[in-house]
Amino acid sequence: MSRLTLEGLEDQLDELVMLVSAVAEDGMERSDRLGKAVGQLREQLQEVVDQLAAAEAEDVGDEEPPHPASWTDRAAPEEWAALADWVDWLQGHYEISGDLRVLPCWPHHKGAVDELAALHGSWKAAMLADHKSKGVGDAAVYWHDRYLDESLRRACRRINRSCLNGHTAPKPVATTDRGALPPVTESSPVAQPE
């Protein structure tokens, strides 16, 4: 329940108190019972408001800023299996061949995996949007035109061509020459690797 909702409830409670006061002229005993009920409700509402405020304060204190991570670094095993099933389906469904054919060792190539995972996510979004439009939308057409071939091309470029005859492990890439970077001073921001 949000703070705005709770504040709205407090306003309604104040309005109810005014109505109870008006009813008091008609029947004092009924008014007393109603007044007690309103008082209890106000106390309970205040407890909820206090708990919400404490929870919000706790959430802010414990929360770390999000760190970006590639799909390969954050995906669960079930997601990997779903992606593999989808890539196999995609290649069979569209009869992908030639330069767009994704080699079977694609899970060994992180760049290709991230491209295929992004393509899968965009496919799901497009197909769901197309389904919701009941056949009058253009999301599926846009996906086919904008994403399918170009994403497959990029994914295939991230797989070593030497893998055409079986998987070849990617060669280590030279790391950045840290000596070429300007020195870090107290006034310069320190970048954390992400």
Overview of this structure, please?
By secondary structure, the chain is mainly α. The chain contains six helices and no strands. The protein has helices spanning 3-24, 28-62, 71-74, 77-93, 110-132, 139-157. It is elongated and about 95 Å long. The relative contact order is 0.07.
Q: Kindly, what is the distance between the CA atoms of the first and last residues, rounded to a whole number of angstroms?
A: 34 Å
Major sheet characteristics: none
- Return residue spans where pLDDT drops below 50 for at least 5 consecutive residues: none
What is the rounded Rg? 30 Å
Strand composition percent: under 5%
What is the strand tally? Answer: 0
| Alpha plus pi helix count | 6
Order of helices and strands: HHHHHH
Q: Percentage of helical residues?
A: 55-70%
Shape: elongated
Average of the residue pLDDT scores:
84
Summing up helix and strand content along with how strands pair, one would put the structural category as mainly alpha
Short description:
The chain is mostly helical.
Task: Identify the notable features of this structure and list them briefly.
elongated, mainly alpha, single chain
Write the layout of secondary structure elements.
Elements: H1 3-24, H2 28-62, H3 71-74, H4 77-93, H5 110-132, H6 139-157
